[in-house]
Amino acid sequence: MATFHPSTRLAGLDTLRALAVTLVVLHHYTLFVTRDAHTFGWVGQMGWAGVDLFFALSGHLIGRQIFAAMADPRGLSLGRFYARRLLRTLPNFYVVVALYFLLPGFRGEAPLPDLWRLLTFTLNFRLPPGTAFSHAWSLCIEEQFYMVLPAVALLAAWLCPMLRGTLRLAWVALALLVMGGMLWRAQLWQDVVDANPYGENHYFKFIYYATLCRADELLAGVALALVRQYHPRTWAWLTRQGNLSALLGLAVLGLASWLFLDDRYGRAPTVFGYPLLALGFSLLILAALSEKSLLRAVRIPGAASIALWSYAIYLLHRQVCVLGAGVLKQYGYAPDSVIAVGVLLLASVLTGAVLFYAVETPFMRLRERYFPTSVRALRLGLNDIKR
User: Of 129, 35, 22, 119, whose CA–CA distance to 352 is shortest?
Assistant: First the structure.
């Protein structure tokens, strides 16, 4: 009987995770601390795309876990899968939610969203920009993805007993979802952004934070997982082109960045920019998984630790930087000074590490003890017990 093994850590993927959280932290620093988009140049302006890289990584990771478990003779257990995901995401998240709601000094002056929307991971639905903990919108999309994908995968496998039919359905569904997302964004842009005095605000509320509009990178990650699990020959050929994949990915990301930097809220980047980000980041993930690629081989000092703490850093960094900037300003250090930037970025990493070890690690140990995999538990018969 084949045994399902959880994915192991790879240097290339850790580099991408560390890059993703770094981009997001730098972008939020420009939004909420210096309030100057040029603080870190184009890196800070495009740093929001770190969320898209997280989406692509999550799509591949979760898709890989689901498809590998479904290929196991025991099959995928929805209960075990959900238990593993909730033990991974809920403890850190609810601790930070408690900080926002129980400590007024922590949340600052930003208005709080409805608590029930945070607890049910529906915050991103028509979220007005500027609320406290608004960056949790991306976690809500990921949590919705975690809940829906395994159930859909099992349903598709049940409706199409023959593997070939199931795969065809999966690829057609992915293509239709990507095209549907493009058409939906185009229609929304026409209705709520174009020639609207509140167009920028509506862009975030109805497009940028919306689940159906931001699924491109998640779907691209799932596509990678499909190829890896069910098309081994194609996967073997692709992973022999690791350095080429990295170069192509950077080129595609350069094109996407040019579109967004030229006109962030325009029609072309709204419709085509997100699929380009999805393609570019997928190519980088492919390079990170390729045995002979530089991205997989090179180990950047500290990247593995930052990748390990990235979820905790993501949750805490915004308020750590905002509150820390206020303290440093009293001592004469402006938010855009080298001292302030260095201290606040370091504080973001260290507080993330504390949250990881104090909250996330104990629950991860519980997860590995009671739910080590997402496959169904073996049912032992009387003869098996006697043996």
Answer: 22
Beta strands in 301-367, from DSSP E residues, in sequence order: none
Q: Would you say residue 1 lies in a domain?
A: no
Q: Is residue 29 part of a domain?
A: yes
C-alpha–C-alpha distance, residues 310 and 19, integer Å: 10
For the purposes of burial, counting CB atoms within 10 Å of the CB of 116, is it exposed (0-12), middle (13-18) or buried (19 or more)? exposed
CA angle 80, 82, 83 (to 5 degrees): 60
Residue 380 belongs to domain spanning: 11-386
Mark out the alpha helices in 136-241 (DSSP H runs).
137-159, 163-188, 199-202, 216-230, 232-238
The span from the CA of 24 to the CA of 348, in Å, is 12
Question: pTM, whole model, 2 decimals?
Answer: 0.93
Report how far residue 78's alpha carbon sits from residue 11's, in angstroms, rounded to the nearest whole number. 30
Supply the DSSP symbol for 378.
P
CB 55 within 8 A of CB 339: no
Distance CA 213, CA 209 (A): 8
Half-sphere CA count of 125, side-chain side, radius 13 A? 8
For residue 154, is it within any domain? yes
Per residue of the chain (387 residues), give pLDDT as tens: 333 334 467 899 999 999 999 999 999 999 999 999 899 999 999 999 999 999 999 999 999 999 999 989 899 999 999 999 999 999 999 999 999 999 988 988 889 999 999 999 999 999 988 899 999 999 999 999 999 999 998 888 777 765 556 788 889 999 999 999 999 999 999 999 998 888 889 999 999 999 999 999 999 999 999 999 999 999 999 999 999 999 999 999 999 999 999 999 999 999 999 999 999 999 999 999 998 899 999 999 999 999 999 999 999 999 999 999 999 999 999 999 999 999 999 999 999 999 999 999 999 999 999 999 999 876 544 444 344
Q: How many angstroms separate the CA atoms of 12 and 14, rounded?
A: 5
Please indicate, yes or no, if residue 204 is contained in any of the structural domains. Answer: yes
| Structural domain count of the chain | 1
